[in-house]
């Protein structure tokens, strides 16, 4: 069973926020609640959780190689 709660960390200001990850879609953008910067996935990552959170997104946790059609 996938972990759905993740702590995302803003690389701009260091603010952390506990979030519930969606299970039916990838989250490509995330706006920091503190500084307002909009996070986008790093190259090679499928979503902001895989790039900036302490837990990868549910499809990656469940060893699906094709999360949202971005990995081969």
Write structural notes for this entry.
The chain is an alpha+beta fold and about 70 residues long. Helices cover about 10% and strands about 20% of the residues. The protein is built from two helices and four strands. It has helices at about 50, 60; strands spanning about 5-10, 15-20, 30, 40. Strands 1-2 form a two-stranded antiparallel ribbon. The radius of gyration is 12 Å and the shape is globular. The chain starts with a strand and ends in an 11-residue tail after the last helix. The model has no long low-confidence stretch (mean pLDDT about 90).
Q: Which bin fits the share of residues in helices?
A: 10-25%
What is the β-strand count? Answer: 4
- In which order are the strands of the major sheet placed? 1-2
Number of helices: 2
Low-confidence segments: none
Distance between the termini: 23 Å
Supply the helix-strand structural class.
alpha+beta
Main beta-sheet strand count, sense and barrel state:
2 strands, antiparallel
Q: Sketch the topology as an H/E string, one letter per element.
A: EEEEHH
Indicate the radius of gyration in whole angstroms. 12 Å
The overall average pLDDT, rounded, is 88
General form: globular
Strand content: 15-25%
Topology:
Layout: E1 5-9, E2 16-20, E3 30-31, E4 38-39, H1 48-52, H2 58-61
Antiparallel strand pairs: 1-2, 3-4
